[in-house]
């Protein structure tokens, strides 16, 4: 049974006689451990109707490109095959997702959807709720603890958020039961997923596919490797980009190709001491980012920063910068700092930057830009363009952290004011920074 706190009606429509229960899949792109899907099956079984699943493929999705589409499409193909085994048809249609969902919703007796957190995702769901004749229900499938249960306001930091979410953890850190479909469609009745090849889509092709393959099976492979080979070294090695101890699961979480509950349960089941450190990142920090975008309307802009951070940066806005780089120079990794350049190249080439270097990367953009506002825009642009896990709550919160969000004032210094400072000497004290730079050398 899906916990009732995950379930929210989006309109006040009365039940209607329809042909099927529709699950409009958008943010949770998986067939396994998916509360929205299982709630759809439960409701369909109760009225002896089949379940249909639709997905709207938006080629104009904000800041998406060939890299993000290639990764997503790999996952959607796998999801379609998994649904087919259960007798659930999966329809992928190009077009604005709210139009695709509304079209399928016309013949539905109920529309269920997963939850999105960014403003345009919320707007899509509101449009569908207003357009279709039947009830529309959202089921939160992207976090462990439902957002409003964890906190009813924007949290200042992990220190204020942590005790609130940990109090709720055991209630929600449980797997969702996969239900048998009572009215499965026969194989010849189930439409193919119809997931197009990325070459067929008219999307920005300037960013090629990265080095990660998409899909739930691939996510679970990474999870298995992490639990069996990397987790034991995670606590001591996670801030060293030369040590391969990270889970590499953030791209899969971004597209909902794996459940955060599944990850947390697998990591906790190892019984390793390092599990606690990982779950701090995977649950507390990740869901703090969701809290940020849920309650802060300026989550994707400089104005969304805390007042103290904006004030201290304004106080130092006219400080002399030793280096100032254009957006193009940053994008091409052409600065004086070989470590920063290596981090930028890692992101451009692979689609993912090591987490510790991502903090350093953002801090230096602040240091090397004419204004803090310019720096904020540049960091968001680069992160969203090249990171497979960009354009999501973690990405927005991560950039904001570099400018003081979820942090406290530190010792005042030039340019940064009271914002936490990082420099190359700090990298060298933690790991072999020169070795890291050699891993991603400049193009010749």
From TrEMBL:
Record has Lyase as a keyword: yes
A Pfam cross-reference name: DNA_photolyase
Catalytic activity: cyclobutadipyrimidine (in DNA) = 2 pyrimidine residues (in DNA)
Assigned EC number: 4.1.99.3
UniProt GO MF annotations: deoxyribodipyrimidine photo-lyase activity; DNA binding
Domain Photolyase/cryptochrome alpha/beta, chain residue ranges per copy: 19-147
Cofactor(s) required for function per UniProt: FAD; coenzyme F420-(gamma-Glu)n
First-tier enzyme category under EC: lyase
Gene Ontology terms: biological process: photoreactive repair
Keyword Nucleotide-binding in record: no
InterPro entries in alphabetical order: Crypto/Photolyase_FAD-like_sf, Crypto/Photolyase_N_sf, DNA_photolyase_2_CS, DNA_photolyase_N, Photolyase_Class-2, Rossmann-like_a/b/a_fold
Keyword field: Chromophore, DNA damage, DNA repair, DNA-binding, FAD, Flavoprotein, Lyase
Record-stated family: Belongs to the DNA photolyase class-2 family.
Protein name: Deoxyribodipyrimidine photo-lyase
């Amino acid at each position: 049974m899906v916990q009732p706190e995950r379930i929210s009606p989006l309109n006040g429509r009365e039940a209607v006689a329809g042909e099927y229960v529709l699950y409009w899949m958008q943010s949770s792109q998986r067939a396994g451990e998916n509360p929205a899907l299982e709630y759809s099956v439960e409701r369909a079984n109760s009225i002896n109707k089949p379940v249909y699943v639709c997905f709207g493929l938006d080629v104009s999705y904000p800041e998406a490109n060939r890299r993000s589409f290639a990764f997503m499409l790999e996952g959607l193909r796998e999801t379609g095959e998994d649904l087919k085994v259960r007798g659930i048809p999966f329809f992928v249609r190009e077009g604005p997702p709210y139009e695709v969902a509304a079209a399928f919703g016309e013949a539905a007796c109920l529309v269920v959807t997963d939850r999105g957190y960014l403003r345009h995702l919320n707007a899509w769901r509101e449009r569908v709720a207003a357009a279709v004749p039947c009830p529309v229900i959202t089921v939160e499938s992207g976090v462990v603890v439902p957002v409003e249960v964890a906190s009813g306001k924007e949290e200042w930091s992990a220190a204020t958020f942590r005790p609130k979410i940990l109090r709720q953890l055991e209630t929600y850190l449980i797997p969702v039961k996969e239900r048998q479909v009572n009215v499965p469609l026969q194989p010849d009745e189930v439409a193919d997923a119809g997931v197009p090849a990325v070459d067929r889509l008219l999307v920005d092709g300037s960013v090629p596919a990265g080095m990660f393959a998409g899909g739930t099976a691939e996510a679970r492979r990474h999870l298995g490797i992490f639990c069996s080979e990397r987790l034991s070294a995670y606590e001591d090695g996670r801030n060293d980009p030369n040590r391969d101890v990270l889970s590499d699961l953030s791209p899969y979480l971004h597209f909902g190709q794996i459940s955060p509950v599944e990850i947390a349960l697998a990591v906790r089941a190892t019984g390793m001491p390092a599990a606690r450190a990982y779950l701090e990142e995977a649950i507390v920090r990740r869901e703090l980012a969701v809290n940020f975008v849920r309650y802060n309307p300026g989550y994707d802009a400089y104005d969304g920063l805390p007042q103290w951070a904006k004030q201290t940066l304004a106080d130092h806005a006219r400080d002399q910068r030793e280096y100032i780089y254009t957006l193009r120079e940053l994008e091409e990794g052409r600065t004086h700092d070989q470590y920063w350049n290596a981090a930028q190249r890692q992101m451009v080439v692979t689609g993912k930057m090591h987490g510790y270097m991502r903090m350093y990367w953002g801090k230096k953009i602040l240091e090397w830009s004419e204004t803090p506002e310019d720096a904020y825009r540049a960091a968001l642009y680069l992160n969203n363009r090249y990171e497979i896990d960009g354009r999501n709550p973690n990405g927005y919160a991560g950039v904001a952290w570099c400018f003081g969000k979820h942090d406290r004032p530190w010792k005042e210094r030039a340019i940064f004011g009271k914002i936490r400072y990082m420099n190359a000497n700090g990298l060298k004290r933690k790991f072999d920074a020169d070795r890291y730079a050699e891993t991603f050398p400049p193009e010749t």
